[in-house]
């Protein structure tokens, strides 16, 4: 897919906002940009933004950062990732006309006479990208300075994340007083996010022929206790700054054994702990493996000295901190009031991990606010009713212009 | 490995028995014959046996059957498989001279001044093949008629087994009153064998993003109960016809999950039940999944209606019946007496499944009697002290000549 055709993004200055937004969405949806293949779309975004004299455009890897420099007292960051999860017969995308059987029933019911954008990225998160491109092009004199971040590799392991790389290499590019990430929220505000850690819990045994099982030690049988502990664990609902975060502790993968007639000498249970923003990463890890287990990303297996998996081998696989909701910031209150007025929705806790947490680590309060239903992200039939574009753009223009 | 060089088996009629046996072993050990690649060795065995006018030689696939037709009252079958498990840096084989550090300590201790054959197949089961080739060539007037079976695909799934194919296509080729299978027993007699069944025990769940685990149902967590049942199961020691069979019930493989951030919708525990010859295959299956579950090889998943795994999905993967020890047959008593005299060993129960069970199904009592330590079968450092050849040949010549 690397030989993607040349992509051009253009905006007709004479077009009404609704038409301009839809045209921008069409253009970026048509660009195949599964993680690792964002390059051509990034190039097009960079060229597009470089055409506006009110923006300073910088690039690091496949991430583009464009900023106004109006000397305003405050600066708001608008960030969206350009990559998507892999396609599954849902590329190229297209508009579904009203009545199309591919339109999900709940969308057809609520938006009976609307076109629906269908295909990979239709919620996660090209609609928000399209709105941000529109704002970047048209908000030449906003009430706050603005920084737009279009980044790569959000849908894969945290260490590849383009926003993370910019935060590490050029933290000055993304300084600000508040950040909005365009992850899909159906134009509601979702504040903060749960943190997540993933790790293998490992049992060891002794291999033997299964006809002489007593000469070995069965590592899969030993994993019963790990699964029993998972079943005994009761996930908590944790209130933080007025929003409620629902935690979760789950085995997502399990593997063990070397052959059908061999007593297995190892079993690995891959566990994902999603924890509320009342806990630091270190506190969350301590609850799983004790405070001094010593297991870090890339340093192999260490025995849990406490916590849920005390006594078992632990190998860290991924970790990302939680973020407290940024709802006490003044701009957040203003944004929340606008969202309440246009959608009737109150701010909610974000459950999945998003780059909100990355801004939180940089000391920038951040929320998610994007078009499209978050439950459709990564689905085969990812789709979004067209009016979400105008709704999101309206809220942001009124908050920023 | 299919381009194996042309293999020739020859026997110097003037050589003493010890030298002749060692020479035969060298020749067949040098032939690479991992399952699927037995062909060239089978060809050589067929050519070798066809040179003796007292033998009628037949072939089916890569299995060679050679018989005497002396009109004796009774017929004894001698069977050995020609294939080996895959090589792991243990091919080509070689003789280790006394003092070689590759000789295992227990063998060096018991056979201090002996050469040791080292390499793939050195116990399982080319020594017995060599002895049988020697008997085939030299026993021109045995006291019973003899049928030699050299067969393929013993070390892989039961449906590929060459002896099974001959039993199905040409049962008349392998009729007899008693059978000796040359699986390694250190020249002791091992009677009968445990049966074995393998099946997947399956749990089902509902996939969801692990950030919203409550929207799914975790199939790996459900497998806890399966592992708990395995841990609660106490394997029995079962006496049958005076020999004791040790049973075993083990998970040998486990797998589940689709991604690190996805609540798993399926988990499979691959279980191996080794059961004593007091049970038929149907009885063994009933103990695991109930008598009327309906799970058969190749017919997909069925819910266990009883037994250890009642309530779970079962998919049958492999099954082989047990065999009662054939030690009440008159020839078996004679053979047992000779073994007792030469080795001091009493007949024992065979634990692993062997083709003894296949003869048992054909109504032919059968035992295992072969050279080499069964605990070294399939090991990287498979090896056998040279004197085992002469010990085995002596017992068989005195029993048969």
UniProtKB/TrEMBL annotation, chains A, B:
One of its GO terms (molecular function) is succinyl-diaminopimelate desuccinylase activity. Coiled coil: none annotated. Residues 195-288 form the Peptidase M20 dimerisation domain. Its EC number is 3.5.1.18. InterPro entries: Bact_exopeptidase_dim_dom, Peptidase_M20, Peptidase_M20_dimer, Peptidase_M20A, Succinyl-DAP_deSuclase_DapE. One of its GO terms (biological process) is L-arginine biosynthetic process. The keyword Kinase does not apply. It comes from the Bacteria. The keyword Secreted does not apply. Pfam families: M20_dimer, Peptidase_M20. Keywords: Hydrolase, Metal-binding. Gene3D superfamilies: 3.30.70.360, Zn peptidases. NCBIfam families: dapE-gram_pos. This is Succinyl-diaminopimelate desuccinylase. The lineage of its organism: Bacteria, Bacillati, Actinomycetota, Actinomycetes, Bifidobacteriales.
